[in-house]
Design brief:
By secondary structure, this protein is α/β, with parallel strands linked by helices. It has a domain of about 70 residues. Helices cover about 35% and strands about 25% of the residues. It is globular.
Amino acid sequence: MSNLLEVRDLCVDFINDEGSVNIISHLSFSVARGEVLGIVGESGSGKSVTSLAVMRLLTSAAQVRGSILFDGRDLLSLTEPEMQQIRGNRIAMIFQEPMTSLNPVFTIGRQISEVIMQHQNVSKKEALDRTIEMLKLVRIPLPENVVRQYPHQLSGGMRQRVMIAIALACRPGLLIADEPTTALDVTVEAQILELINELKDKLNSSIIIISHDLAVVSEIADKVAVMYSGRIVEYADVHTIFNKPKHPYTRGLLEAVPDIDMNRQQRLKEIRGVVPRPDEIREGCRFKTRCDCAGEVCMDKEPPFYQVGKNLVRCWNYA
């Protein structure tokens, strides 16, 4: 399978009054055509910043280095008008919270139609017909009525389906889903994941799914990148990550997932401490203050990537 997206040595720094702060450090990964990549990690790991960098939606305070190759073109070298032809058309994004992403004063029909008319040479009537088609595709009942409704008139699950319809309106090659099931109950979450999987096969799109929920990623991903403090610390196919994790952070995340067979009095394992702020990062391994395996070398030198079986792991003590 050829790669649709290749991110190479991506670095993101944010400029403030006191200088610059590194948020993403030397990130590299790829997504093949028709493949699903899961990016997991705690809040503050840099997952959403990575997705915004790919979409080129970071603020002017961000300095981005490296390369983001989409279908062979480096997105970082494109002008903003050139990027606008790709963003929403060939690369689309589902944002975390649909109620804040949808415009409350425009109807659902107008919001989807505008995306289609922006990128496709079609009339208003054709755009509306395509809008109804998209609402049917994401399994929204009575789409002819829903196009005349406003976001506040829909449930959370329905709004998330509308966001998926907007993202897929122009049949993009790459879909980025940033926490697509946040704040949804488990039944609706399962429906949304099933829908994304179904649409991936139907449209042959590649997907990056960003989540802190390992169960969500295990359901849909082909490959998984585990992020910590702006770095990928482990990278492998989904079965290897869940069955043979090598990094202490990956193992900690998996051990913190509740098990249905657990004794009710048994405490969940936890990773002590919190993700360091970008301005707190010093020399050595970024996970050293929270790691039970940390040794002397971890304090002074940041580990490189090691190939261990099918895993790429950034750890001195992976064994």
